[in-house]
Amino acid sequence: MFWGPKHALLEVRDWRGGYEDDGDPQNGWWLDNAWAEGGCCIDLDNRHLALYGGEDIECDILWLETYLRLLKYTWKGWTIEWSWGELGQIACCAGVTGDKLEEIDCKITSRPSDIDWYIDKYLFDIPDKRYSGSSTLSVLSKGEIRAAFTCESEPEAMLTVEGRIGRLLDHLQPSPLVRDDDEFLMGSLHLDFDKREIWVWRTWDNHIDIDLPAYWSGWKLFDCKYHYRKFYSSVPRFIEFVPRSEDLYIQKIRDWVCKDKDYFAPHRLALEERERLFEEVRAQYRSDNPTPRILPEL
To answer: Strands, DSSP E only, in 172-213?
Structure first.
């Protein structure tokens, strides 16, 4: 989708995969949120693009934000929407309704089945706590804040340990944590025992409402969805991020969209042409934004 509507339309015309239909999205064959890894809806009438997909970009919100900023230069005059609701949101944009939409928009979450293994063998098994870890757990109790990096990509899943939460607290350390990594976090969970508040932000499945286990009855939930700035400005500071220039993420995007692989190449757009077009976009963006942003902007 990066190269704009002309090339995108050439590409998606081959996506139907030979399935016969009448061209009506309501009657077409769809995957669902559980199986689809990406999708888009190109609304030519309203000049609106909805899209999602790609593990790297979807797991790193700083990369995603930079990608969407660049996309405005190749989709000039279009509105652009990232589909946090995955394929269900794409189907809705395409006009699918009723039972068909409900079938596509299935909401499936994965939760640990063996809580003891989850706590003792998985959650905090991080070789280098500066450079890895998908999320954080932080706790405020009696005015003291402690935190740790975790391997959990869906931080709300940590709430399912319920009464064994004390075993998680044993792994926490005095703040601040320091994150020195090119990859941003996928989410954070903050438990305020003094106010009985739960704060969370997450990239994956943030369109699915959190169903609090019974153990947390009486606690107030603040689900920030993908709004990480709201989360970090609302809870006590427990982590410091080593700043990175947005140029790092721009280069990551270039490396991805200009790979010399046939299956990464948009239809009829050669590698040399992609490299030339990308440098034009980069130059236009830098002309409009002379000073590179320092990320994350908290």
So the answer is: 173-174, 177-179, 187-192, 197-202
With beta carbons less than 8 A apart as the criterion, state whether 105 and 32 touch.
Answer: yes
Summarize pLDDT for 127-169 with one digit per residue, the tens: 665 556 799 999 999 999 999 999 999 999 999 999 999 999 9
Q: What is the 3-state secondary structure (H, E, C) of 136-152?
A: EEEEEECCEEEEEEECC
Q: Tell me: cis bond preceding 176? Omega within 30 of 0 counts.
A: yes
Cβ atoms < 10 Å from Cβ of 113: 8
* pLDDT class of 266 with cuts at 50, 70, 90: low
pTM equals 0.92
Cα 261 from chain centroid? 25
Smallest Cα–Cα separation from 203: which of 236, 180, 245, 231? 231
Residue for token pair 């999708």: 39
Please answer whether residues 3 and 266 qualify as being in contact, where contact means their C-beta atoms are separated by less than 8 angstroms: yes
Contact 294, 243 (CB under 8 A): yes
Alpha helices in 113-261 (DSSP H): 115-117, 165-169, 228-234, 246-257
For the chain, state the CA radius of gyration. 21
